[in-house]
Amino acid sequence: MSAYAVDPGRPSGPSDTARLVGRSGEIGRVTALIDAARSGQGGALLLTGEAGIGKSALLEHAARAADGFRIARASGSEFEREFPFAGLHQVCLPLLGLLDAVPAPHSAALRVAFGLADGTPDLLRIGLATLELATAAARERPLLLLVDDAQWLDPASARVLAFLARRLAADPIAMIVAARPAVEPAGERPAAGTPVREKPAAGTPVREKPAAGTPVAGEPVEGVPVAGVPVEGVPVAGVPVMGVPAELDGLPVLAVAGISDDSARELLAARSPFPLDERVRERLVAEASGNPLALLELPRAGGFAPPATSSAPTLVERGFQARLTDLSTDALLLLTAAAADPTGDPGLLWTAAAHLGVDVSQASPEATTTGLAEFATRIRFCHPLARSAVYRAAPADRLRMVHAALAAATDPATAPDRRAWHRALASGGPDDDVAGDLERCASRAQARGGVAAAAVFLERAAALSLDPEQRTARTLAAAQAHADAGHPDTASELLSTVDTGTLDDRRHAEVDMLRGRIAFTRSEDDTGPSLMVRAARRLAVLDPDRSRECFLDAVEMGLFIGRAGGLIGQIVTTVRAEAPAPTAPDVLGALMVLATEGHGAAEPLLRTALDGLWTRRPALASMIAGELWDVPTLTTIAGWLVRTGRETGSPAALRLGLAQTVVGATLAGDLGRALAATAEEQAIAEATGGTPLLYHRLHLAAHRGRRDEMLALADAATRGAGHVTNLHWTLALLHNGLADHPAALAAARRTDAHGHHFLSVPVLPELIEAAVRCDEHALAAEALDDLTERARASGTPSGLGVAASARALLTGVEDHHREAVGLLAESPLVLYRARAHLLYGEWLRRRNRRRDCLEHLRAAHEMFSRSGAEGFARRAAGELRATGERVSARPPGAAHEALTMQEIAVARLVAAGATSKEVAIQLFISKRTVDAHLRTIFRKLGVTARAQLRGHPGLS
Predict the structure, then answer these.
(1) CATH entry 1.10.10.10 includes domain 901-949
(2) What is the pTM of this model?
């Protein structure tokens, strides 16, 4: 609703033809988007603003402006938010006739998402299927997608639609999404006498520790809302205040603000049902604060409403509630039932009305006269605030009545979840039968990928449970589901409601493990490992094998959080003293030998442990393989993760594998492969609603010498992304490459204040070089001893070569330089090989051996340049210039110098023989986008055919 000059007494809709007032700028943005899509350059726009500000009106304007477009719509609903893919189904419903145009594996995924087929939803394939369905629809004529009230979209739909919105640039598709920003509790009530749902008092089972004793059936449960409809500004226990979905971050935004006072006066003149006194008109303009819906509603009071002390949306809601005065009981029941069930299905509403004893033939016309809703082929409220106003005005007993009637009217075979939800909201107290229904709803939601919905169902089930043990079990399950859905704060609050005084050790351990994982997710220093240690202690006698797994969790968490402050040392000490004995040699035992007896004793145990570890704990296995300088195993793990992720549809495995591919490719000097894998990992993160991983980006930025990019990533890491050790190591690498050795030394020292460097061998070469350059020879010698022990235990040319290069740097003995260059000559670690040549060349130049140094400096410069290691390449170039050599800035023709990250990903796949369709599937973009990228790639690289990409530098 907004400043359309239309009949205020009926709901607005697509048929309205009046003009918008005071919205020329907004209309320009919307029209430009549609015109661009019409010409094949699609895009998305996110409209934000308070309720009633005009977002819906702009969507209607877009629909009118999109002459010749196919239009698909969706509208978020508070109730539907608990049902995965409900919003996406609305968008896709008018396009499903084209589903046969989508490749079978992807169309099958979409059918599973919509409940048309059995199976587990695959977000990657669902996202790609939606993109393919939209592009298929746009082949016939341009496509406009309109999504209103996106703050109430179910999370699964929000993720898929956000994925789609970011991939429209090369297709004739426009998407406009409208959402309200997050609303904090208003701290005010509606007009006197209007019932409201308030925040639960202390003692609520949903959020506070329950009082001693078990609830009695039939008694009201505080904190269990009688409705599941979050109301503007009034949070409900267990339901977060909704705002713009985080998944939509990064889309172009149009903030819709209030219209000007002059436009407000113009709107009042066009819409007021009677002439207004100038003083009344000016007061209305002031009170509405530019909100068009408020301007349309306030004149209904004839200008004699009490002075406003509330926001415009609250004023509007009060105005809507005022229309309920003097309605009959039947009309109120009918309106309340319509507000309580947002499906808009008249058949369902009429059946519910019959259960309520309402005479629809009399109640429907009376309710329609309010202008709040229309009862036709669909039930529709004039504005979401009107629905909220009706619902909030209803007393608790009326709400329970209508939800009971709606539950009775809902078919348990076709809509079991909606029926269970209505039953829960009709319940006046604990009810194990209803709780069981909700638990089954949670299982169905989880099977369809709706983890967030499952969490809410389980939370309600816990609150309605009579049996204390079931209540605890359901609360823990709800907390786990909230954590899995990416809501660690909500999960943590739920765990605080568990009465731990009644738990046995096994259940206590479950709580500790879940709290530990949540703390780790939130990067709460050492809280996560500490809680895992506590859980391990509780299980030491009850379940020794699981206890050792918890201890191993603590070690792994400590390695990811960082080794500074002696955290790993503390964990190791605890494990040695308290872990139960293993039933067979395991990785935890091998790590303890490593910590206490060193690499020589631990190396064979670690290699044995690796055999069965990398399919269960691939991240830890990669750390161990890196510690052993075992490059083939690192490559195997990364390849297995990528292959498994693609075959099983596991985004987590695929993303981890791609991240490790980036690290391996970077060290191997294959920048093109590293950039392509980074682009794919980012695409998968967007498709599944995740945040792109950081640690491989840290490696890549450090090796490339990209200071600004590195500092931005470092800032993100220190704000809660974890991987602190990776951060400091890569900062040390960056600064060594840029020849800022004091900064490199400071960063390397921060990796472990206590000097243990447990499973962190890559730090040592950086620490040694920085310490030598800063004349900290004692520190360098200590680190060299550590590095040498590890290299000898590994027995690999890579490890021995890196150690020899570090020894040469510290001792200045030429034989060590030669040894390093010889050992690393066949190593796959190209960047370490190049660094050995650089150090040897620098040493030779400082001894005025110009002819000898040129060979090594040229080799180093060529390898660094072709690998995109810009900082080290500049160092090598500086050394060469010091000899009088002329140096070109970059080798000609390297693809990574000319192409963006995604263009490299496209080019490498095409160079390997992939078709545009195959590239589109792997990179989660449309075929038209692939072809658009190829045109740009051909122009930048000066080629005219796909075959010419084969063998091009950086693409093979």
Answers:
(1) yes
(2) 0.75
